[in-house]
Amino acid sequence: WLGVGASVFAHWLISSIVPLTSKGRALVGPSLAVLAVLARCYTAFEQCDQSDNWVLHDYGLGHLDPLPRNSILVVKGDIITNSIRYHQVCRGVRPDVRHLDQSMMTYEWYTPQQSKHLPGIKFPKGLYHPYKPNGYSMREFLLENALNEDEPTFLCGGWYHDEQEGGGIPGFILMPMGACDIILPQSEKIGFQRWAKLSKAVLPNATSYWPPAPGIFAIDTWEQVAMTDFWAMWHRRALHMLNEGIEKNNDQKILQSAVDAYEDILKACPEGGQLDYIIKNAGVAWGRLQRPESIDKMLYYFRKFVKSSAASPEEKVSRPLATVAPCLANTMA
Fold it and tell me: CA angle at residue 187 from 184 to 191, to 5 degrees?
């Protein structure tokens, strides 16, 4: 309809207003089209100019950079897959990392087309689909590929399909490690102190993650997804400590590490930018810790959680980008 309207307007302009030669009349339509495009460029340039937006660029690097050499990286999610593929294919970054997208592995074309780009990867059958005759399960894939200590296997974005009750893959465990989780045989779990040191060293650096001006991205953008994922990376480590401490009969040393991890996250954020689930779990961690101030700290965070979770959906939508971006900039200060 826009094209029809422009054509009618041009015809009216030529016949009624502009006394031009036949050659001049022929230029009216194209001229109006060029002017319309230029006007749109002028009015929308500031909104569409992404020349200083490096969030997803840094997001992809945050997944690739910390990985050990010759790692296998199993992922789920468009933003993870595409940001990593951009760096590997277009920029030649970390070609040693074998990157597999779980959803693409479920297609019959994937193995014959992609196996040549994934040296050393063994595909048990034709496709990743445990319920098809020519399909394999993730457990079968991991048994073929995730048992070599020199080529560790990582998971980013979670499992595409859980293969046991309660989630996960039989015989394998996940331990948070930076932006991803390291996949280990159940019998080879890393000791807590060693894991705590390793996992902290590979956490992504917030100062390279975000542009200097907060509140510039809409709630439905990939940048918002990247921000949510950033919080998940830091929170998974603290939550793993909390769960480990509880499982070991409220081990006080491990619970102290969990409290310290939550405090590190929350202290880096101004009021109003702290996410509900982090506040709640900080209260749980303090409640399990047997120290004189524990009850007061637990009640403080629970009250804060109740107040924060009671905020209207509109407030929660408008809050994160304006207030959380400064939190991230302070996390690694």
Answer: 75
